[in-house]
Amino acid sequence: MIDPQEIVEALQQDRSKQAVARLVDRMAREHFNLEDYLALVKKSPSPLNWLMTWTLNHYYEAFPHLPSRQQKLIWTFLQETKHDGIKRDLWRILSCVSLDEDLAGEVFESSLRHIPSQHHPIAVRAHAMKTALNIAQSYPELGQELKLVFELLKDEDSAGIRARAKNYLKEIKKITGIR
Predict the structure, then answer these.
(1) How much is the average pLDDT of 86-104?
(2) Burial letters 75-88, b for 16+ CB under 10 A, else e
(3) How far apart are CA 148 and CA 62, in angstroms?
């Protein structure tokens, strides 16, 4: 098992995309303790802590299996952190994995609060949109509620959010048959 401190040391030496890709492969081969890793993220200074969560989101994008207990660790950390870049990375992780039923409802409700709120950065909102859409794919009965939230975004200031909402509305219609 790779010690999270080794991951930190590797990131401190080389932060290139190639180095992160090699590190992600090593994390997959040797495994790592997510709880210890997140504890180290919390203790690390910026921008190292952000780079650590960026690496973690690349890991889960490549290897999207996240057991229930680890999903809860990510979710708890997301609720605790104040760092917008780390929030973006954690929302992105949640958008890549199939959430456990016990957590999906809480994450979906939080997504619905984040999506229309201009108090959150656009990237956080965009990943919350994808996360909510993924949850609605697993639980189509949530599609109508998500559709209403996405429809509210047609006058959104951000062209990216408007475009994403429009595209996701098409996906919701396919998933649920809602017109």
Answers:
(1) 96
(2) bebbeebeeebbbb
(3) 32
